[in-house]
Design brief:
Elements: E1 2-6, H1 13-24, E2 28-30, H2 32-44, H3 52-60, H4 69-72, H5 75-84, H6 88-102, E3 108-112, H7 115-119, E4 125-130, H8 133-146, H9 153-169, E5 182-185, H10 191-204
Parallel strand pairs: 1-3, 1-4, 2-3, 4-5
Helix pairs in contact: 1-10, 2-3, 2-5, 3-6, 5-9, 8-9
The structure holds cytidine-5'-monophosphate.
């Protein structure tokens, strides 16, 4: 069974996807890490995240086994990732690797922005997770403080809004629910309650 969980930054999709994959005993791919690792490489080369050539070359070189969530989940890489992610050539270079992952025998859970719309439209279960920008910013703020990144709440909220706008407004695979996705609003749900809802959606399918 393929399960896709899409949604905006800090909606809870990543945590829910990880927990669901553990529960179902199938592999999980956090597709945001792919764009973050492309951004990391481009920045390390001293190039701009908007540099089509540098970003496409980095995307063609991504190694799934080398993705390290701890290293990649900072605020600056999130911002740079959303810029490389708007480049169609970057998305094209990362497509096959994600589709191969989704189609592993035995199934998989993928989370990101376009996993239900572009990567695996054939998925048996598609969930689109949302929450208000303020609640998402509060969650991300806590995560970043725990990483030792001392940003102010209003900076995190501004970053979330900017990324929402860029991810939803781009022409290549914009952030939007698949027509057959189940919407899950986690604004008033803690992670346990949200996970119970995810399990209900999966069981129904
Ligand atoms: O989910 P995360 O915050 O790690 O994603 C970083 C950025 O990567 C997002 O803001 C988005 O621009 C991009 N992304 C994407 N498509 C995906 C996953 C992430 O465009 N499937």
């Amino acid at each position: 069974m393929i399960v896709t969980i899409d949604g905006p930054a800090a909606s809870g999709k990543g945590t829910l996807a990880r927990r669901l994959a553990e529960h179902l005993k199938v592999p999980h791919l956090d597709t945001g890490l792919l764009y973050r690792s492309v951004a990391e490489r481009v920045l390390a080369e001293g190039r701009s995240p908007d540099d089509v050539e540098a970003a496409s070359a980095a995307a063609r070189d991504v190694d799934l086994a080398a993705l390290d969530r701890g290293r990649l989940s900072g605020a600056a890489l999130g911002e740079a990732a959303s810029r490389v992610a708007a480049i169609p050539e970057v998305r094209a270079a990362l497509l096959k690797l994600q589709q191969d992952f989704a189609r592993r025998p035995g199934g998989a859970v993928l989370d990101g922005r376009d996993t239900g719309t572009v990567i695996a439209p054939e998925a048996e279960v598609k969930i689109f997770v949302t929450a208000t920008p303020e609640v998402r910013a509060a969650r991300r703020h806590q995560e970043l403080l725990a990483r030792g990144e001392n940003l102010r709440f209003d900076q995190v909220l501004a970053d979330i809004r900017r990324r929402d706008e860029r991810d939803s407004g781009r022409s290549a695979a914009p952030l939007k629910p698949a027509p057959d996705a189940v919407l899950l609003d986690t604004t008033d749900l803690d992670i346990e309650a949200a996970f119970r809802e995810v399990l209900k959606i999966v069981r129904r399918a």
